[in-house]
Amino acid sequence: MNNKLKFLAVGISAFVIGLSLNNIAVSDVPSKIAVVDVSSVVNSSSQVQALKKEQQAKAKDLMTFIEKARKDVAATTDTKKKQALEEKYNKELNTKKQAMDKSYASKLEGIDKTISAQIAAQAKEGGYDIVLAKGVVLYGGSDITDAVKKAVK
User: Fold this and answer.
1) pLDDT greater than 70 at residue 76
2) Considering the chain, what is the average pLDDT of its residues?
3) Which long-range contacts (CB under 8 A, 24 or more apart) does 69-72 make?
4) Residues 6+ apart with CB under 8 A from 93
């Protein structure tokens, strides 16, 4: 029983010493933390605004195409021709939609890289070690959102 008590005491002592050393090691590393409201940066970006307008124009063109296709199909009386015309327009519509989606995704990825690069540049300029999304941080951190907004525009 005495050996078990000694073993328990040594174990607890080792745990306490380890915990103390860990606290000393962690507390010696000062970190500057910044926060960024990413959605605010994205919404204020002129590139994002231009992409939205472009996407709306393409969607309008697509709707015009669909209306024209419906009229052409409705005007055709022959069943076989009508079915062939529907297939033709469906293929064209799918091709246009895929091209539109691919273009949008590619441009959005480019904008994302630009914004991420600006956040990293502002963090380096301010000497920050860590940058977190503003919504994740409950308290603390320096807000660099405005600086990133200015750099992104």
Assistant:
1) yes
2) 81
3) 69/93
4) 62, 65, 66, 69
